[in-house]
Amino acid sequence: MHNKEGLEQKWAAWSSHQKKAFSTQMPQSIPVGESASFSCRQTDQCGNNYVFWYQKKETETFRVILRIDRTNGQIYSSYNHPQKDDFSAVKIQNGVELKLDKVKLQHSASYYCSCYISGFFTVVLIFGSGTKLYQVVKAVVSVYPAASTVHLEGKSSLLCLASAMFPPLVRFSWKRQKEDERLEDVDPAEGEQLEIREPGRSASIWLIHQQQDGTYKYSCYVQHEGGTVEAQTQQGDEGWMTVFSTDSASCGDAGKHL
Fold it and tell me: Is 253 a domain residue?
């Protein structure tokens, strides 16, 4: 069995750049604890009855999870995959399906179906295009004064930093709230917004024009696939910025006026 597994692993590495033959799915984002499935269709082109399912993690090679007979649904899974007991497979119309009853963090990977076809004097293992399963990680959001002093021209700025999220795409928005009043969208005429995006983090800088007397609490909202996250800071009396200590990462009312 070990020799057979080694042969299939070798074929997988050799043929990873060959024709993508099967119809598979778009990337999936599945919460931990829920079920997931990956379909593989058009398996009638296979040269025999066996369809293999492989797992490919970012820094690892292809690993066989199991083999399923596409005609009767019989499964063979003695390939020493460390997560083999988490997976099952079934035959479906014109294809097969790999199933996960309960998604775990360690299941984050790309999944490929494959089978052997006969060529000129050879047998080739062809692959589907693969389906990526990834875990959504919520953004960690912090709001800080962007500078330790108010700008001379009467402007101050806030920095909203979103980090540690996956996928990395986020959308920023700002709101403000005066004491004893409802939360409202910021007026674009009262400030300017700049955005900076780097690997692993994104930031929005809200440049606030000089305010009227009063205390404003500004909230940064970060929309992400993992959910919307809010962080707050506070604008001090008479338009002055409240300065927070460096360990006050998200929100609060304590501070000292400049």
Answer: no
